Amino acid sequence: MFQKGRDYVIQLQDGRDFGYSQIGNPKGKPIIFFHGWPGTRLDISCFHDEALKLGVKIISIDRPGCGLSTYQNRRKMNDLVQDVVELLDHLKITKISVLGFSTGGFYALDLAKAYPEIIETIGIVSGVPYYQLEYKNKNLPSLLKLVKFISKFPLLVRFISRIMTDTGLNGYKRNPEKEYKRSLKKLTPIDRETWEKEKIKSWLIEQYLPDLQQSPRRGIAHDLVLLMTSFSNQVKRPSEPIVKYPVYFWHGEDDTIIHPLSSIQQEKLFEKSELVLYPREGHKIIYTHFEEIIQKITSK
Question: What is the pLDDT of residue 102?
Fold first, then answer.
């Protein structure tokens, strides 16, 4: 679903297409956004007016095989960094703030680790763990225990990822209104209140879901494969706090998708960092607190 004036595609050096969108002020402070799973560059496209008001330009990318970006065979998690650097060179951007939502939190920190000199600030919202978590196994959330176990079996990971992709997308394809109402029941009351707003509902059904449906299923499934296997290959925790850039974390205390333990522990690894935990809120906090988050990562 190509939106003229907002969506763009560049050709990378290896010949692949790399898609992205821009919302907000074209001359505003640049922020690069990494979407969640399943997701595309349209994850936060409903906030164009808010971004415009805040004077920022949000560049939201499609990972390979998602949205407008060409599928990449044998892609690994850290391969995306080079694609993003090519895009920033194309846009002549030398300094950037970074925002990652859910799965996108991994890619945000991966870019910062590889190219700290270009980073202004980082925001991680409901983010998956990038660095190794420390825990006693009995205290490990049940979902994380399951993912860590499954990630040891590559064929099982691929099989489950494809089933999860097809199940989720087919439901919305058959009856988007019914699936939307069903999804509301899984949210916390505060998250549900946000998602019931007409602005969010119309964006979800009229823009986001059609774009996601047009993405190759194997691309979305492979994106999940990489996420699940990353739990068995997390980056070693640094021996000293990272001081190169400020990092801000936001997490809902009732997040049942990515446990807040992820943000609680990751935040302690950075010298210049802050963590905001929202009581009685879940995974969708970026949609409830978008302006607050953008203001924070651009306030340096």
Answer: 95
